[in-house]
## 1
Amino acid sequence: MSVPDQHIYPHATGQAAKTVEQRQEPQDLVFYSGWFCPFVQRAWIALEERGIPYQYKEVNPYKKEKHFLDINPKGLVPAIEYKGKALYESLILIEFFEDAFPEYKPRLLPDDSFDRAYVRLWVDHVAKQIVPAFMRTVMAQEPEKQKENLEEYYKALRTLTDKIKGPYFLGEQFSFVDAALAPWVVRDYIIAENREKWKAYAEKIETRESVLKTISDKEHYAEIYARYLRNEAQSEAAKAMRAGRPF
């Protein structure tokens, strides 16, 4: 029997498709992407936000070609090739973009060392609290578990929301925290429309140009997340959630 996740829509659509079309020229930085993946999107947002030149290559991680596996033995997107060297993992890639391309503005990390550490602290909260709670909520099948996980998700959101200076996390500056969280902001319709104090921040993130430029048509996300809602998804993130391990 085939793996359901293999039958995803083959390419980006909507505004994301226009972005892909503009990013086909060869560059030193090759960005291996899956249009549907939120982990891809946050690294993609960082590239667009910074204006870093890159070449976009679409990958179906469920049908892995040899060259892609040579780049990333895990077979996961996002991944990059930069001057013949390979890297992967979305948050690590964003850090790499900051270090390797200091001339491209705006930076997503502040100049002040304390502020940089503070931003990393809250990126860690996104990675370890918000994203896993979102995934558990989407994948839960029993009503009691759904309710429990939804509360956990909202608690994690409220903890971060209390620290938002507005309009973005640090105030006027769009930062690493905003990029790390943005893909789940634009996907939170999957869980519920109730955003409480979250609403103003979510609306600001959803209308940010770099976020809009990396979003495909909602209809194609629906098919993918239906598998998570039925707890049938076979992505590495879904498998990790079932096993109770980090991803």
## 2
Amino acid sequence: MAPGAEASSGATMAATRLELNLMRLLSRCEALAAERRDPEEWRLEKYVAALEDMLRELKKQASKPAPELLNEYSRKVDFLKGLLEAEKLSSSTEKALANQLLAPGRTPTTAKERTPATKTVHLQTKARCTGQMRRELLGTDPLATDDSEELNIRKRKGLTSDEKQSAVELDAVLQHHQDMQEKLAEEMLSLARSLKNNTLAAQNVIKQDNQTLSHSLRMADQNFEKLKDESDRLEQHAKKSVNWLLWIMLIVVCFIFISMILFIRIFPKLK
């Protein structure tokens, strides 16, 4: 094998290994983000920072993945980074708003996933923020149940109930999003059909107008030619009329002159 081919093969293997490591670490980060973590948990933040470094290195590789795949990796890393920043906010309302602005990935990271893990994490986080805001409105404090074992048991029971409620809310949100997507698809299809019909109608109207305009132009040209012919005929007729009138006047003058001479000859002057 030529040295150039060996170098190219080595670069491809390195890029593929880096991409596999990125996918494994990304899957691990998604799994950590889906769990209930302790506030002092530091692994996810370190992992996300490592993901950013690996993604930058992957973009610099000569044999890098397709642009769509790189955009999907960047989208998921930005989602995890934004999720960590949202968790650092103090108010539950700010957390809910920050999570609402996050954009999860569109495709699964591994073949085992049916739906993108980041989308599931996004919905779970929304449900947690909603539950936290509900507890704040009701005035309950989950940290106040650490004094006795009975209260701890109640706390665990309440946590299980919250998890069940979160799962129900997650299913409801997923169904709601699916219904919205179907409704949007139907509306877009209806708008496309309406636009097509309007375009065809406008095309027919324009075609008819063009035909009417062409017919009007032809009629105007024909009328102009006819008017020109009639003008020439009228001019010739006017010239002919003037000539006949002149001859008639000359004949009448000559007749009167001859008549006067004859009259004078026939009737002499009286003495």
## 3
Amino acid sequence: MAGENIKPVAGLLLALNFCMYVIVLGIGSWAMNRAIDHGFIIGPGFDLPAHFSPIYFPMGNAATGFFVTYAMIAGVVGVASAIVGLNHLRAWHSDSLPSAAAAAAIAWTLTVLAMGFACKEIELRIRNAKLRTLEAFLIILSATQLLYLAAIHTAATRRQTT
């Protein structure tokens, strides 16, 4: 596949995205665990609170539940995308490009969706340091995942023009 000079850039972005998605999963898992451990207690003899939400998080604000849920989904798909991207990077052939590009595009769209909830959470202001870190990682990931997508598509475009 042409575009051999783009391969190291794609590899660097792939490694960076993989590490960042793993960190997103770690922080998101912490937030989910804390929400499960310190959320509403529901059982025999307990009434539901007046404003019950199944995605209630004791830290953060009203957007935190949606934000953490979509951040974890984006993290899992992003890690899977990095694994497929590693296979493409190893082969670096046009036959492996469609699966890597599709997985990367899906991961990017889910990351952008989670970033939208991060922006809403930033707007609502009440959150702790770990949630701010998660927001920052998702905002950065939305850019680096897009750059990775552009890098692997640039290599494919250069092959077609030569």
